[in-house]
Amino acid sequence: MNEDIKHILEHWPYEPGKISVRRVLGADGTVKIQMRLNLGILQMEATGRPDGQRPHGRESLLDYQESKLADHLLRRGSEEGFTLGAQACHELREEGMQYYHRYLSNFFLEEYAAVVRDTERNLRLFDFLHKFGRHEADRQSQEGYRPYVLMMNARAKAYVALHEEDLDRALAEVNSGLEKIRTFFEEHGQPQLVSKSNEVQALLELRDELISRKPQSRLDVLRQRLAEAIEAEQYERAAALRDEIRQLEEGESRETPQNPQRSET
Known about the structure:
Blueprint: H1 6-11, E1 20-25, E2 31-37, E3 40-45, H2 61-76, H3 86-108, H4 112-132, H5 136-140, H6 146-163, H7 167-187, H8 198-213, H9 218-231, H10 235-255
Antiparallel strand pairs: 1-2, 2-3
């Protein structure tokens, strides 16, 4: 049997700077995910561990280590004394890279629920390493990637919500992702990095896009025109717009039902 894959690569040429992914039907009848690389093709399982392996009979090494922690808790009654050595941490990080390649591929395939699944799995991995790594280098090894994974998770959740035509939930997911990233930088004593973060910028751009899809009320339109008038130094127009906005706000206030006062008996 000729195992040369040159003919496959020729029909799917590599394009520098572009992420090329596709779904194919495997010889076993299950869907596979393929990513085109400059030296070939990376193929992954659509579910389970991306390379199809089941270490120690478990779905993943993380699942195996979590089961060891559960056994430790049963024996000792607490997490105290449970740690991960350097080799175990290295193997977990290598496994995490498999899930990274898969959620990145699924994002470009617009399989957003799968992206949510795998980003949440890797965030769980980060927490596990940070908590149980025996050495400080291992505990901190994945923290630098956390803002990126939080961003991808929030974007995927937002797109899932959009697919379900729930714009408000999509906005809430983006805002939640922004808050988690801000909290991360603040907890690491680097709040100044929030404004410089590419991940924050990506979520802000998505939020702006989502807001632009919301139907605007008369008040929204007038407030936007007021901002534009002030910026253009059209102060008479701005004053007229303020009056109109005030009248509308007062009208809405009068129309809002008040909670009736409960009488004392």
